[in-house]
């Protein structure tokens, strides 16, 4: 992890230069320096230590689902979610200069990227090889300088490592999109009633009583609060103890959300708000597409 000359205009991300997280950083903060980090924990640490102002963290993908481990890491990051960003994932099949599609025998990329591009891999009859991440795979291909080896990565990765795009948009699903959360040391809570819409993210554990989850969440339904995410995962190695990650539309100080939280707290052992932030316009665009 390299240091930046101006931490106040630096945003940390997990991965190598040219990764999709890097692309998301450039899309949201084009004037910031993007700081690559080896692991999510390193990106969090960079913000906590003042090396970076923000961290750009992927949480979900429309094809692959939630990002592994990140839901365990968010509650203990010591940071606050201050925003969200939806980044379209447009995969490119990258090769060294002079290579053609007919030259390719193997392709390297992250396991999720390979899974998102099964059609072209099968059509070309090439062998997939799992790499740590997409941009790292592109860097490997550049170092190898072998026309028979390609990578699936972003156009930014091609620019970063001097590769050429042999074919663009090779993902199987055109809706392939990754949702990121932007994290900071201090909360940046919008006022109640923000016209753009507000999302509240939180984690909780229910009390060990019958129908506790049903009762805990009932207040959101009776108060007309739209819940957009509810996921459970095992914590502390105990199969009987689950933690829930939840997101609702609305501000905790708005009446409906406030009443729902009061009911939730009655049935929970732990409740931690991860962030209150403005909703990205993509949420409403996607909803409109579904309703149409």
TrEMBL record:
EC number(s) on file: 4.2.1.51
Site (Essential for prephenate dehydratase activity): 178
GO biological process, one term: L-phenylalanine biosynthetic process
Catalytic reactions on record: prephenate + H(+) = 3-phenylpyruvate + CO2 + H2O
Entry keyword annotation includes NAD: no
Pathway in which this enzyme or protein is active: Amino-acid biosynthesis; L-phenylalanine biosynthesis; phenylpyruvate from prephenate: step 1/1
SUPFAM superfamilies, alphabetized: ACT-like (SSF55021), Periplasmic binding protein-like II (SSF53850)
GO CC, any one term: cytoplasm
Pfam families in the record: PDT
The ACT domain, residue ranges: 201-278
Aminoacyl-tRNA synthetase is among the record's keywords: no
UniProt GO MF annotations: prephenate dehydratase activity
Record-annotated Prephenate dehydratase domain positions: 10-185
Keywords: Amino-acid biosynthesis, Aromatic amino acid biosynthesis, Lyase, Phenylalanine biosynthesis
Name of this protein: prephenate dehydratase
């Amino acid at each position: 992890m390299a240091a930046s000359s101006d931490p106040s205009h630096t945003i940390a991300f997990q991965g190598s230069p040219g990764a999709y997280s890097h692309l998301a950083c450039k899309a949201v903060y084009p004037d910031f320096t993007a700081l690559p980090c080896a692991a999510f924990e390193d990106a969090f640490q960079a913000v906590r230590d003042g090396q970076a102002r923000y961290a750009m963290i992927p949480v979900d993908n429309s094809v692959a689902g939630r990002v592994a481990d990140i839901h365990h890491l968010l509650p203990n990051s010591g940071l606050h979610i201050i925003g969200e960003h939806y980044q379209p994932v447009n995969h490119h099949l990258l090769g060294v200069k002079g290579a053609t599609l007919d030259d390719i025998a193997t392709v390297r990329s992250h396991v999720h990227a390979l899974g998102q591009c099964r059609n072209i891999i099968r059509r070309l009859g090439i062998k997939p090889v799992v790499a740590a991440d997409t941009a790292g795979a592109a860097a490997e291909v550049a170092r190898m300088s072998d026309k028979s080896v390609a990578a699936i990565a972003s156009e930014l990765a091609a620019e970063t490592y001097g590769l050429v795009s042999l074919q663009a948009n090779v993902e199987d699903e055109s809706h392939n999109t990754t949702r990121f959360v932007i994290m900071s040391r201090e909360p940046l809570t919008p006022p109640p009633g923000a016209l753009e819409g507000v999302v509240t993210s939180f984690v909780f554990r229910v009390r060990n009583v019958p129908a506790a989850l049903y009762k805990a969440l009932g207040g959101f339904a009776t108060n007309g609060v739209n819940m957009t995410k509810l996921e459970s995962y095992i914590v502390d190695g105990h199969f009987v103890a689950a933690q829930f990650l939840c997101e609702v539309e609305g501000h905790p100080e708005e009446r409906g959300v406030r009443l729902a939280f009061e009911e939730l707290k009655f049935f929970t052992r732990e409740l931690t708000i991860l962030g209150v932030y403005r909703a990205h316009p993509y949420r409403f665009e996607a909803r409109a597409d579904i309703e149409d």
